[in-house]
Design goal:
By secondary structure, the protein is mostly helical. It is built from two helices and no strands.
Length: 116
């Protein structure tokens, strides 16, 4: 019998697959904006002014909506992950960090913190 390498447990967090699909769609639509503007300019030059402006408007509207939806769903996904019970994050206390000056025989509790 083959060994399972994927862990299945009922206490898993929400899936990120829909978020990935929305993000890829938003990126593809953002890439399509310059191409559609070029196509619309050719349409305007060759006499289809209304159609050219419609292409620009629809493409911009679709790109904006997809970015907003992907952003909103990303924020919602992040909130679900943080609220999930199995997401264990604790803030370490000052004594739980390892400093390079530890165990040298000196008291470093009053040393100023320098960021290098």
């Amino acid at each position: 019998m083959a060994r399972q390498s994927i862990r299945y447990d009922g206490d898993r967090g929400p899936s990120a697959k829909p978020l990935i699909v929305l993000t890829v769609l938003a990126v593809l639509l953002l890439v399509a904006v310059p191409i559609s503007i070029l196509v619309a300019l050719f349409m305007i030059v060759f006499g289809h002014v209304t159609g050219g402006f419609a292409v620009i408007g629809v493409t911009l509207l679709a790109a904006i909506v997809s970015v907003v939806v992907a952003g909103a769903s990303g924020i919602r996904h992040l909130q679900r992950i943080v609220e999930h019970k199995s997401f264990r994050v604790v803030q370490l206390g000052r004594r739980e960090y390892h400093y390079e000056g530890d165990n040298c025989g000196h008291d470093h509790s009053n040393d100023e913190i320098r960021i290098i």
